[in-house]
Amino acid sequence: MATKHEQILQHITELGVGEKISVRRVAKSLNVSEGTAYRAIKEAENQGLVSTIERVGTIRIEKKQKDNIEKLTYAEVVNIVDGQVLGGRNGLHKTLNRFVIGAMKLEAMMRYVEPGNLLIVGNRYQVHKLALEAGAAVLITGGFDTNENVIALADELGMPVISTTYDTFTVATMINRAIYDQLIKKEIVLVDDILIPLQDTFFLSIDNDVKKWHEINGRTSHSRYPVIDGDMKVRGMVAAKDVLGADMTVPIEQIMTKNPITVKERTSVASVAHVMVWEGIELLPVIDEQNRLLGVISRQDVLKALQMTQRQPHVGETIDDLITGRFHETGPDSDYHYQCDVTPQMTNHLGMISYGVLSTLVTETGSRLLRQYKRGDIVVENITLYFIKPVQIESTVDMKGKLLEVGRRHGKVDVELYHEGGIVGKALMMAQMLDR
């Protein structure tokens, strides 16, 4: 039987997009405590089913697929710009295709306004009305209001009119940044992208015995399976070493590994790779928020996905891209292998190079040296930064690496960082090397 938490999530899923949700209403309709309702609504927010907006409340929104993750809903825009919804609350769940800045004459501006747009404009009431009639939402900057006719039209058409105290330039920058962040998120490969779904997953029940393991093993040639209970919740994992020498009638529950390591579908593949490499695991169960089995993910698929992403061009520039873009090899007469200039974005509040940037410099140096020795892809397992001195803004950092140990699958590199001939950092990097 489903728990109260699961019942609330199911109830929220069945609500119509755009419907308002309140803790009190959910608690009353499902006869649960307000605390239970609050926790379930927060979980629904984490899953992207609802969005909470100040002075508006919590509303049911369309759950985004990875294909359109770079599109923002009007509800998200309200949060980004600390806005106030003046009208058209029923349309907050809708996604916007693009935004238009209304800094031109009326006739010219309206040529660019289309259904699904967001028009960013000041206190021009006529423009607000025409934009709504064209099927676009309106974001009013500078803390200005609109008139009652516009608000009534927004409510009628279900297109939001939002007000923010920020100026037009700041608002455009904030929305651009949010879209850019979404593009970067879209590029990150998640477990959900490569998992073997439940219908193709082989698993055992806690009611099965060792004989059942041998039957499935004979059909699949796999050696490791999740063990579930009657509610599809993962209770353990059973592998060949567990059944070795066991009698055919022994219950699986007695020999399985209890409380196994599991992953969620929204976990990044890079994070999973680290766990699988570090723990030496070949197969992991993928679960939902209630610990129910969704499928499995194999080490082979994880490493294959990592190899693929390392060869893909990226759309959004991350901090790592910024650092490695300024990372270059030194000339043949230099004592160092690589150099990097410290830009303002790489520093902390004291104007010194940040620890995260230092870690990236170590990773890039070690990875490049390992690739020179053996072609392939690198998965960093461990970095130990055991000496560090401050390096100020607009300095040049020189890097020198030394291969300590390189095997068929693993590599170990000692990396030293210098500034003006003096050592400013020293680290040890260990990585797994993957053949292409």
TrEMBL record:
Q: Membrane-spanning residues where?
A: none
Membrane as a keyword? no
Q: Which Pfam families match?
A: 4HBT, CBS, DRTGG
* Keyword terms: CBS domain
SUPFAM superfamilies per UniProt = CBS-domain pair (SSF54631), HprK N-terminal domain-like (SSF75138), Thioesterase/thiol ester dehydrase-isomerase (SSF54637), Winged helix' DNA-binding domain (SSF46785)
Q: SMART domains under this entry?
A: CBS
Recorded hits in InterPro entries, A to Z, give:
CBS_dom, CBS_dom_sf, Diverse_CBS-Domain, DRTGG, HotDog_dom_sf, Ser_kin/Pase_Hpr-like_N_sf, Thioestr_dom, WH-like_DNA-bd_sf
User: Where are the annotated coiled coils located?
Assistant: none
The reply to whether Chloroplast figures as a keyword in the UniProt entry is no
Q: Which residue numbers delimit the CBS domain?
A: 256-318
Superkingdom in the source lineage: Bacteria
Q: PANTHER family, per this entry? A: CBS DOMAIN-CONTAINING PROTEIN, CBS DOMAIN-CONTAINING PROTEIN CBSX3, MITOCHONDRIAL
This protein is called what?
Predicted transcriptional regulator containing CBS domains
Species of origin: Salibacterium qingdaonense
